[in-house]
Design a protein that fits this description.
By secondary structure, the protein is of the alpha/beta class. It contains 19 helices and nine strands. The protein has three domains: about 210 residues, Rossmann fold, CATH 3.40.50.300; about 70 residues, Helicase, Ruva Protein, domain 3 (Orthogonal Bundle), CATH 1.10.8; about 80 residues, Arc Repressor Mutant, subunit A (Orthogonal Bundle), CATH 1.10.10.10. Bound molecules: adenosine-5'-triphosphate (ATP) and magnesium ion.
């Protein structure tokens, strides 16, 4: 029989009940209010592990911003896709909005020129603007920071004049190239200084905090940083119960306790486990036994999906590094312990470490220790046959 299953495990899928983010939403909504009054506002950055709910939070906030009348654009930075071309397309989107209103058309020319220069200089494959060779030369520049700052300030000025504030939602910031990130920070900084209503709400893996402060020391003041993590017991309980309340299903207390124990309050894991438990449930009261029975399917689904896609992006050398991290026992672990288990020197494994950080699998936690960006990844590795083989010297 077909049964509606309200749980939504999956990247960026809005859960039926967004638990535990009320305070963050409220804080940012207040900032949107200021922005909507044409007041320049601090930008916001959320960081957190894989599957904690950064994307859905960003999407939820975008909805609020749109309701406040702010012009919004969502950008998902991808490892291989060019950020500049995405930024330029978003900026053009804003100009299209202005062009729809007769009395605002005069505001377009200046930002359009800035966008042209940005695209022609830093996204040469892009054929949005057809220009003669000579014109191309006129627009060409080699300074990305200056060029992106020109775009932001010209857009900001137009936004201010049109009383149409702008917010860019940028997800997966950790994939931005160093130079692009530096240029973006400088651009938003300058448009803030000039009093223009342009704001960024960004999200990415924990390493972005370091990336941003390394790039520009003033970025610490420019952004409101918020680390988002797993849900508390009460918040998890809501994430578990609320979606099925309307469907007449309940969980008993022991079942909830067990779900929180298995998922450690990670939102993605809660959606995944509850989806399975609910699918298998043949009665209206979900008990601990039912949760326990669903657990093995839960691990199977994770091992073949969420964990596997990350694992398979690793080379054999990366994998050995990961195995050594797991062997350390406790996470975060020190690089010297990893080196010890790999029977190498710390300097010999530093490239490997950098590579795993770049791939977004590992990040350097407090005191330079290492941890996985994927929650419970160590448990997955322990279940994996490759790990066993490595322990036996066969990998
Ligand atoms: N606050 C929440 N309450 C309940 N479920 C949530 C919450 N936040 C996220 N989820 C669920 O968790 C899953 C992961 O969310 P999301 O894709 O936003 O995470 P993410 O942090 O962006 O992960 P990644 O780093 O892999 O992009 C989704 O299935 C979503 O429905
Ligand atoms: Mg995401």
């Amino acid at each position: 029989m077909f049964k509606i299953n309200p749980y939504r495990p999956g990247a960026g899928l809005m859960p039926p009940y967004l638990a535990g983010r009320e305070e963050d939403i409220q804080t940012v909504e207040r900032m949107f209010e200021a922005l909507s009054m044409n007041i320049p506002t601090q930008s916001v950055i959320f960081s957190g592990l894989r599957g904690v709910g950064k994307t859905v939070l960003l999407n939820r906030l975008q909805k609020s911003a749109e309701e406040t009348g702010i012009f919004c654009k969502h950008i998902e930075v991808e490892e291989r896709k060019d950020f500049i071309s995405q930024m330029a397309a978003s900026a053009q989107g804003f100009l299209r909005k202005l062009s729809a209103k007769e009395n605002l058309k005069h505001l377009i020319q200046k930002p359009l020129e800035a966008i042209k220069a940005l695209v022609i200089s830093f996204d040469p494959e892009n054929s949005t603007f057809s220009l003669s060779m000579q014109e191309r030369e006129l627009y060409r520049t080699t300074n990305l920071t200056q060029s992106l700052t020109d775009v932001f300030t010209a857009l900001g000025e137009a936004a201010y004049e049109a009383r149409s504030p702008i917010c860019f939602f940028i997800d997966e910031i950790q994939y931005m190239k160093k130079q692009e990130l530096g240029a973006l920070i400088a651009a938003i900084h300058r448009s803030n200084q000039l009093g223009y209503p342009v704001m960024i709400v960004g999200a990415g893996l924990p390493k972005i905090y370091k990336m941003l402060s390394e790039e520009k020391s003033y970025s610490e003041r420019l952004f409101l940083y918020k680390e988002i993590g797993s849900l508390s017991y009460e918040q998890s309980q809501k994430a578990i119960e609320e979606p099925v309340r309307k469907l007449g299903t309940e969980y008993d207390e022991a079942a909830i306790k067990r779900i929180v124990e298995i998922t450690k309050g990670y939102p993605f894991f809660i959606q995944q486990l509850c989806q399975i438990v609910y699918e298998e449930a043949e009665q209206k009261l979900i008990t601990e036994d039912m949760v326990r029975n669903a657990a093995s399917t839960f691990y199977q689904v994770l091992d073949n999906g969420f964990f596997k896609v990350r694992y398979e992006r690793c080379s054999d050398a990366d994998k050995r590094f990961i195995f050594a991290m797991v062997k350390c026992g406790e996470l975060p672990c020190t690089i010297s312990n990893v080196a010890k288990y790999l029977k190498k020197s710390v300097s010999a494994i530093s490239t490997m470490r950098a590579q795993l950080i770049n791939k977004g699998i590992v990040f350097s936690a407090r005191h330079g220790e290492l941890d996985f960006t994927v929650p419970e990844f160590d448990g997955f590795i322990r279940r994996h046959t490759d790990y066993e083989q490595w322990l036996n010297g066969n990998f």
